[in-house]
Specification:
Blueprint (H helix, E strand, L loop, with lengths): L1 H24 L7 H12 L5 H31 L1 H16 L6 H8 L3 H25 L3 H9 L4 H39 L4 H10 L3 H32 L1
């Protein structure tokens, strides 16, 4: 009950700030909440809107799958090989801080326009957090767990499934949650630069045409979907930590 009241208080505060921003800037910069909601519902009921949704969703699924597989695999390898982990962890952390916009010309040159470029933009945003979280999880496995497994004469397969995996799973899920958000952001930005279809394209196209109502409505739809998905992943994260 308290969490629900806190959520409602935050929502009301955001709506208040939204109205304040509209009152200060006017319709030329942002539309008010009620008008935005009506236009968002219009878009959701418009058949021309959904191909853009499916285009974004397809690129995001590909990018998230690649980010998860490569990130977890690389994190496990670097975590199990301590020397490699110590060498590459600061390199990855430094690369993560680089503004990705500096890489867009290179990515466009390699992948061109279209789905592959959007997926690549998503992967370069989402893979590194997954790698770093997985690497940290493997490095921080308590030594007592492996010693206990050896004392119980567990096979490598049994040790991996029943000892190591439960120990690292919560951190991996946390990494996937962060990677989920950043991959989605990367795909949207990729659509702004390298696509003529998708929600990111609708946003940048609305900005270019000064279509404030459409731009605001699409942004609200994107933010709402991201918040709901992140809430579900956060719940899964808490459940995994509680199980451990």
């Amino acid at each position: 009950m308290t969490r629900w009241l806190d959520s409602m208080a935050i929502l009301l505060a955001l709506l208040g700030l939204w109205y304040l921003a509209w009152w200060q800037a006017g319709d030329s910069a942002i539309t008010p909440p009620v008008q935005t909601l009506k236009f968002a519902l219009y878009l959701l009921g418009n058949a021309d809107f959904w191909p853009h949704v499916w285009a974004t969703l397809l690129a995001f699924i590909y990018a998230l799958a690649i980010s998860a597989v490569l990130g977890i695999t690389l994190g496990l390898v670097l975590g199990l090989h301590r020397f490699s982990g110590e060498v590459f962890e600061p390199i990855l952390a430094s690369f993560y801080t680089i503004p990705k916009v500096t890489l867009y010309p290179l990515m466009l040159l390699i992948f061109g326009l279209g789905l592959s470029a959007k997926v690549a933009f998503g992967v370069i945003h989402g893979m590194i957090p997954v790698t770093l979280f997985t690497l940290a999880a493997v490095k921080n496995i308590p030594g007592v767990l492996t010693r206990t497994a050896r004392a119980m004469r567990l096979s490598p397969r049994e040790t991996a499934l029943h000892v190591l995996m439960p120990a690292v799973l919560p951190e991996i899920i946390s990494g996937l949650r962060i990677g989920f958000a950043l991959t989605f952001l990367g795909v949207l930005i990729g659509e702004m630069f390298a696509s003529q279809r998708g929600l990111g394209f609708l946003i940048i196209n609305g900005i270019n045409q000064h279509d404030v109502a459409r731009t605001t409505a699409v942004i609200v739809i994107v933010v709402t979907a991201a918040v709901l998905a992140n809430g579900a992943l956060l719940k899964l994260d808490r459940h995994a930590r509680h199980e451990v």
